[in-house]
Amino acid sequence: MSAPRRGKPPRHFADLSPEQRRDAVAELGEKPFRAAQLATHYYAHHTSDPAEMTDLPQATRELLAEQLFPPLLSQVRTLTADAGATVKTLWRLFDGVKVESVLMRYPGRATLCVSSQVGCGMACPFCATGQLGLTRNLSTAEIVEQVRLAARALERGDVAGGPGRLSNLVFMGMGEPLANYKTVIEAVRRFVAPAPDGFGMSARNVTVSTVGLVPAIDKLAKEGIPVTLALSLHAPDDALRSELVPINTRWTVDEALDAARRYFDATGRRVSIEYALIKDMNDHAWRADLLGTKLTARGRGWVHVNPIPLNPTPGSIWTASEREVEAEFVARLRSHGIPTTIRDTRGSDIDGACGQLAAEEVS
Ligand code: SAH
User: Fold this and answer.
1) Both 28 and 142 in a single domain?
2) Of 149, 279, 288, 303, which has the most beta carbons under 10 Å away?
3) In 230-349, which residue ranges form alpha helices assigned H by DSSP?
């Protein structure tokens, strides 16, 4: 094996804004309108293969593809669950590091869970990625390529259930998306720009999930792209939350909830509160009541709660809450008038559910 490469991933078409694409094409000695042709191939047809770009002269497409579509993600392995409706893919990046993405197919929609970083620096003790520490940020194109490849696999009928369309994206893979802000927001621009400038997805179908980096939430609120915000709360009291989500020592529960409420005010998007239910840790009825009180104190109709049964991670002593305890937790929140839906644990048997991504290669 060659020594791992360092530095930045090579420049890729998906890193570039529409204007930068025209400049890049011109710098390569080609007519700027070729940029729009490339964008159609990439964002509308989900291909970067010069052989498929038959509306460009052969020499042109080979030059442009070589310069602007360097391979960024190579597939190491895929694992499937739920009769093929859940697919976890392990990708190797240009420098040998690995990330995972998970595609989940439901009747009428398909959701891709994307990674934004290699590892994660947030150190939440119940999350497998949190145990790895942060290796590096992904580039915009490394994020966009996860999406393009999933969209292509679906379209071509490579995923059980026949040809389909990618409808939803969630930044719930590896990493803290708001700790890689500029890159992530650029990726989001590519997701929502109408084809052929981008994939033309609806902003509401893109979810950015965060531990609660308050200044970044406020910045996101001002972007004019009303993505759905998910706040990983996991405890309504600072003493426990500081243990479960260490960044809480920097921004408290109240500060994170205030930022979430401001996000709703700015965007009109109802915020999701994520709450992994951990047996005897954070699943007490009084904590459900405290959460309900804190949420309703900030108004009604702006938030809903997604309890997630804890997905087991290797070496952790923690387990998911008992069924009755979970049911009581949900009932309490609802009694405060908070819409509450248990998140499914799709892919947990292939370590592909929330908090289980560690990109380990089984040898
Ligand atoms: N860094 C972002 C995205 C992380 S993954 C964030 O923290 O929001 C998406 C969700 O999975 C987060 O709510 C995270 O707290 C949750 N999660 C992490 N580990 C988990 C586990 N073992 N079981 C259930 N959910 C988990």
Assistant:
1) no
2) 288
3) 238-244, 253-267, 285-296, 323-335
